[in-house]
Design brief:
By secondary structure, the chain is an alpha/beta fold. 35% of the residues lie in helices and 31% in strands. The strands form two sheets. A seven-stranded mixed sheet has the order 3-2-1-4-5-9-8, with helices on both faces.
């Protein structure tokens, strides 16, 4: 599927300026949090955790319950400030936040746990998607855990547009193959919602002990 660069820029501008990242129902995000807690508890503890595209930090704080230190990054300064305010109201010191665009492959170090939840469907261009895939792998320590969450297509890629919002629902097999190609081993998934043409799930990957 040919993708216009205008759509990629539109998505980026949207996520840079929004004041909330919650597009679904409260029940959906509550279900995501419940599944995330279950998965993290089964692999914990973690010496370190990275949340790529952390938004207001809700799920970063969940990771912090199982990690010694957590860093959350997001391209939206307003959402990062919300995350910092949220941490100040609960706990500090073990959680940090930075303004970073994940598709620009910032230098973030390596981490025992890497989360990238609901991010890549909003990275429209193939080149930027590849950048995010490489960043996820670069940030994950050998033997580490990677958690991804996205809406994926059962067949051809789908572009979803609603006002200024744009999302790319990539083919599921191609999506998994992209992460497999950089050395992430798919383990299991936890469905959160689905339609006749798409599925949305939290996916668990493990990093090979040796570099791919």
């Amino acid at each position: 599927m040919a993708v216009s660069s205008d759509l990629h820029h539109q998505s980026r501008e949207y996520w840079t300026s929004v004041t909330t990242s919650y597009l679904g129902t409260a029940a959906y995000y509550d279900a995501q949090e419940k599944v995330l807690r279950q998965v993290l508890a089964s692999y914990a503890p973690f010496p370190s955790a990275l949340d790529l595209g952390c938004a207001d930090g809700r799920f970063t704080l969940v990771a912090a319950e199982h990690a010694d230190y957590v860093l959350g990054v997001d391209l939206n300064p307003m959402l990062i400030q919300q995350a910092r305010d949220r941490v100040q109201a609960t706990q500090g010191g073990r959680i940090g936040f930075r303004v970073e665009a994940v598709d620009e492959q910032p230098e973030l170090g390596t981490w025992a746990l890497v989360m990238c939840l609901g991010v890549t469907s909003c990275v429209i261009s193939p080149e930027s998607f590849d950048n995010v895939v490489r960043l996820v792998r670069a940030c994950a320590q050998p033997g580490g855990l990677v958690l991804l969450k996205d809406t994926l297509s059962r067949d051809e890629p789908i572009i979803n547009r609603s006002g200024q919002y744009v999302a790319m629902y990539r083919n599921r097999d191609a999506y998994l193959a992209a992460f497999s190609a950089v050395g992430l081993e798919f383990r299991r998934e936890f469905p959160l919602s689905e339609t006749a043409t798409t599925s949305n799930a939290l996916m668990v990957f493990e990093v090979a002990q040796s570099n791919p």
